[in-house]
Amino acid sequence: MDPEGLQLLLPATTLAALADSWLHEDCPGLNFAARVTGSAPAQAALWAKSPGVLAGRPFFDAIFTRLNCQVSWFLPEGSKLVPVVKVAEVRGPAHHLLLGERVALNTLARCSGIASVAATAVEAARSTGWNGHVAGTRKTTPGFRLVEKYGLLIGGAAGHRYDLGGLVMVKDNHVTAAGSVEKAVLRARQAADFALKVEVECSSLKEALQAAEAGADLVLLDNFKPEDLHPTAAALKAKFPSVAVEASGGVTLGNLPQFCGTHIDVISLGMLTQAAPALDFSLKLFAEGDTPVPHARRP
Known about the structure:
It is a single chain. The protein folds into 2 domains: 3-120 and 277-286, Alpha-Beta Complex (Aldehyde Oxidoreductase, domain 3), CATH 3.90.1170; 129-275, Alpha-Beta Barrel (TIM Barrel), CATH 3.20.20.70. Helices cover 42% and strands 18% of the residues. The chain has 12 helices and 12 strands. The chain has helices at residues 3-6, 12-26, 34-37, 57-66, 94-126, 145-154, 172-178, 181-192, 205-214, 226-239, 256-259, 271-274, and strands at 41-48, 52-53, 70-73, 80-81, 85-93, 133-135, 168-170, 198-202, 218-222, 244-248, 266-268, 281-285. The strands form 3 sheets. Strands 6-11-10-9-8-7 form a 6-stranded parallel β-sheet. The chain has a 4-stranded antiparallel β-sheet with strand order 3-5-1-12, covered by helices on one side. α9 links the parallel β8 (198-202) and β9.
């Protein structure tokens, strides 16, 4: 999907609420530094100092909108960043520019970092000729999930379920609590009704066949080594061709191609959100006619 179109997925009211919560977290009381800058009109340049994928413009905009500042972008969402490059300019009262600076940079850096890793993962998968879905997981930062899931989408990955209500996921602990795979899937199907799919986490071919027989839409083959994953998925598909297969657990950017295969529909990686390094951005105030370029980030 076009990155610009993905911005339409973010409700304005949600963006405003998130921006308010982040700004309140950073400055819940007196802002003593405002006395230093004053409230005179000022302008700042946003610089990208490390390579990657630009993601998070709507969140950056929402933060400065709440502070009566205007952002002018020079690069579209999803752009490949080649440092050092000026990405945007922000104009508004000096004390408001600096009040939003760190919050906006944190959000943009984190979202862009996830988009960058997601793009790398998708590229690695596509290089094998595999056309399935590279997906994230629910392993996200509390209070920051929307940013991280959006970053996955900008990077070309699937977000997977956004929350517990997006898909009925039956994991090992659910099976233990229910007493068997069959009972767990039956209860999940009753809860899901016609509106939701049911996915079951399985650690063996036997469990996968039981889950499919009981009515699972998807089977998650968890923590399988590639040499065991593909024959297990093939055996499952041979009997239940309509059941989708997800591979997860132990997948990294380095070994991702080994998990790609004919019988695998989805490969999910928790590291896309848990281990993505933030990109380096800086916001520098400047006088009209003078915009010094900062140094690039060293590897």
